[in-house]
Amino acid sequence: MALPGPGRLSSLFELDFPQHLGTFDSYEDAQKTVDYLSDKQFPVQNLAIVGTDLRQVERVTGRKDWGTVVNQGLANGLSMGLIFGVMALIFYPAQSNVYLITAVAIAAAALISVVIGLIAYAVTRGRRDFTSISQVIATHYELLCEHKVTTKARELLAQMPGNKMNPFA
Fold this sequence. Notes:
Layout: H1 8-11, E1 19-24, H2 27-39, E2 47-63, H3 66-91, H4 98-124, E3 130-145, H5 150-158
Antiparallel strand pairs: 1-3, 2-3
Helix pairs in contact: 3-4
């Protein structure tokens, strides 16, 4: 099981000749199984939990109108302006006009953010008049193991009380 892409990061996710140990309906069950194996002194660095059957879930959180666009722009701009203002206070504390610079940074960032938000909303012409959050979730979790320790893992899992693993899925 190797993720595509060159470099060292992808090698962190690779197992040599991975073997299927079982499938779980929740991440917590897969995690408990790995924890059980860890408690039994199993070399858990030879395991991988792989989320499968991915689904994107979008939760609609509310309506979007001109007022919400302005409020969201203000919130984003004020927070960004505040960050720049605090940086000015930290790096230029001796300047006599540092508070004026901070106020201008906050006001300018808020104004720019509101204007950009309004333009972006106007361009959509009502095609997406709602706010939402989205997340990709797995519906099943497969536990994989390096081939060299699979037999030991299966022996330990056979002794696990309340094992919720489906070894055939």
